[in-house]
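Q: I'm writing a short explainer about Molecular chaperone HtpG for a general audience and would like to include a description of its predicted shape. Could you first generate the structure from this sequence?
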Amino acid sequence: METMQQEKGSLSIHTENIFPIIKKFLYSDHEIFLRELVANAVDATQKVKQLASMGEFTGELGELKVTVKLDEEAKTVTISDNGIGMTADEIKKYINQIAFSGASEFVEKYKDKGGEAGIIGHFGLGFYSAYMVASKVEIFTRSYRDEAQPVRWECDGSTEFTIEPTVKEQRGTDIVLHIAPDSEEFLQGARLRQILEKYGKFLPIPIEFEEKVINNPTPVWIKNPADLKDEDYLAFYKELYPFSEDPLFWIHLNVDYPFNLTGVLYFPKLKNDFQLQREKIQLYSRQVFITDEVKDIVPDFLQLLHGVIDSPDIPLNVSRSYLQADGNVKKIGSYITRKVADKLAELFKNDREGFEKKFGDIGLFVKYGAISDEKFYEKAKDFCLLKNTEGQYFTFDEYREKVKENQTTKDDRQVWLYTSDAGKQDAFVAAARKKDYDVLVLDSPIDSHFINSLEQKLEKVSVKRVDADTVDKLVEKEIMPENLLSEKDQEALKSLFQGVADNKSASVNIEPLSPDDLPVIITFPEFIRRMMDMQATSGQRNMFGEMPMMYTVSVNGNHPLVNKILAAEDETEKGKLAKQLFDLALLSQGMLSGSDLTAFIQRTVSTL
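A: Of course. Here's the predicted structure. Afterward I'll give you a sentence or two in plain language.
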């Protein structure tokens, strides 16, 4: 065996010092040095395993693992593997020849492409991420090859390196980082553990730190679904989200053409404040954690789901931390959307009763998807359910059939009535039920947007809130009730209530309603209702205040109390009665509060 001598040389780059360049371009994410070096160690270990399976390595594999050691006194962090190792020639090939021709050229080329995000990854610079935190790096390595001579390499971040023979009994590589003074946070055991658990939690080779294996090398997403039970999926969910309640169900993703994608997506129980629900889907590449910012891959509504996606075919920029958009990304997003829609359709078809029970928890997700993604809507329209005040569920087609007979207007449009708060709007719901009209419950934060979407997508359907007008005007039929009041009496009432409303924008109508209906009804135009609901959903301040400027006062000309007003001889008495009925209408809309409510109660008590 030929014995090598110590050799000194210059790294093949056109720059005086790689150290400040690495620092500059990765300043925002120094912790990824450990991800890169551990990932390289795992790759080296996987390679020797593969060579053994092919018969090209016939030695003892031993216990394959990667070890991270901290020496606070020496101020070093060492990443060790018993993988494939390197010869002196391989070090010269893979380490000394840095994979770009010049730092200044690189900076110029990538300055407008997120260059400052990092220069690791596709440029063969994973090893050089070490110089984000180290003032000097040593490599001790021994190749798996027979008669291979152990080699030590050293470089202090300048272009000068040293390579020489060393003593190393075991196959593999040790990378020793001498931590720089400005990076001593990485000399804390807790900090290193946190990084290892973040990026290496599911690496395929055991990762040992402080004499404990910190990872699960065989997570459920790499296993065959046929070999897994519900308990396995639930246990993995707890591993990902220790403090969350159990998910409702899940989807196991597994595709290898036209791209490679595996993963498990879980449907959590969604609370009404869906902005807070984003526990974040985690993106991996060959079991290395990349990011939990997956908005460039996964459509927005799918980000309400939890779980893991793993794909080596998602293009990352050079730091492996930020996604790059391309055709594959769009295909992956479309595939996941389709798989989720198919899963929901299957659950609905196979167990409708169970699906209805879960819909309170997943309805928000389904509606969000139907609104925001046309392809999802095409499938979701068959399993997106509508619930009425009786607690019954209907698909869109089923509901259209249910209300066809009784809720079709004179111009052949169906009116779907809904309540956004069955308690507050109970009087209006009751009025609709008297007419045998069905009322839907649409009270989630997203329903104001969902309603708009329904009207755009469903032919000849209008969706109206049950308190948006008098019930006869909500569903206008050919036959309208007869108005029993003279024109003179109608004008008198109109003038009286216009004064009580004390608002020039208020519209007062005398309506021929049933004597069983309320004497006075205050309603707001549907478009104002929707704007108010949308503002409430988005958390914006209500531009209308407590009482929108535009509203309608519908006086029931056929109600005995209205006739009592007309019969009163004293104008003051008429005004008092009108004010009382007007306040009663405000109360039924939830618009009477504070001193106005107190005054109303006192007036009511005084008349008893």
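A: For your explainer, you could say: The chain has four domains: 7-181, 220-349, 386-474, 487-607.
Q: Perfect, that's easy to follow.
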